[in-house]
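@here heads up, posting the sequence + SMILES for the magnesium ion run so it's all in one place. Ping me if the SMILES looks off, I pulled it from an old spreadsheet.
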Amino acid sequence: MTPEVAVVLARDGGAYRILYRGQERTAVLRGTARRDSTRAVAGDRVTIDPATAEEETLAITGVEPRSSLLARRTPEGRGARPVAANVDQVMVVIASADPDPILQLIDRLLVVAEANEIPAIVVVNKVDVAPPDAIVSHLAATGYPVLPTAANEGIGIAELGKQLAGKVTVMTGPSGAGKSSLLNVIEPGLGLRIGAISVKARRGRHTTTTAVMVPLAAGGFVVDTPGFSEVGVWDVTKYELAALFPEMASLAEGCRFGDCRHRHEPGCAVLGAVAAGEVPASRHEGYLAILAELEGLPESWE
Ligand SMILES: Nc1nc2c(ncn2[C@@H]2O[C@H](COP(=O)(O)OP(=O)(O)OP(=O)(O)O)[C@@H](O)[C@H]2O)c(=O)[nH]1
Ligand SMILES: [Mg+2]
Ligand SMILES: [Zn+2]
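bot reply: prediction finished. Complex structure tokens:
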């Protein structure tokens, strides 16, 4: 019998939840698939031994080649942590308030998407509480689409649904921004757990704990990820960093020095654009913060 392909929805300890012949099933890696260093993650297409179709636990015989992989460097460590495979787009979900947006966290999440060569959209949620203006102007020169939403008032939900339909999307962003809330509105019946913001700290409490991929009625899949407050930028060198800031990428070619770090070098086209107000100073600060971090790291952390 020829092997059939299933989609991994989530890893659950040593087992996987997969979508097989339209049904959610449990599967484990078998044989060479288990010895393989590539462990399956949400979004992976895996081959199934059809002889196990009637059994309670299906056997995964292999992981199909990936079209893309979203990975993060662990903040403390040096390894890459794969989040999801075959991802079409990343949605950076950020609240306009409660918790207050941290612009440099947005920059980091966008750099991770760029480094993985995955298109990104920014969703500014909770516009019922505060306007999205600060984030909109921060990103004005980047070209990233910015979509204002309010999960509880239905603002921007139709547009969000349109963006998600037929694609594999990873929702990322700080804890408490409303990722799970938005998905529950888009797909009633999902019943993802929603967290209460602790009033004292005004911080989310990591309500979602593992990456889970869910099929959408409109087609496509969404991966709801746990929020986090720290992101390591993985697999980027200080020489490549400016290329991952779209509004700086082409400017950098106009710098006097080929190895310009766009910090205080004479004849720097990026600094010129910041001074002229063409690139927001806040984005340049975000760039400098990541640059400093990369300079503190060894060139390669294999
Ligand atoms: N006012 C307002 N509150 C919202 C909105 N969206 C979500 N919330 C609230 O914000 C809190 C956090 O929402 P979650 O959906 O759990 O946030 P999350 O991003 O999934 O958080 P983690 O799973 O921890 O990463 C909950 O109390 C929601 O009810 C919104 O648009 N407006
Ligand atoms: Mg959540
Ligand atoms: Zn420069």
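MO: The longest strand covers residues 4-12.
MO: One more: The domain at 69-224 is CATH 3.40.50.300 (Rossmann fold).
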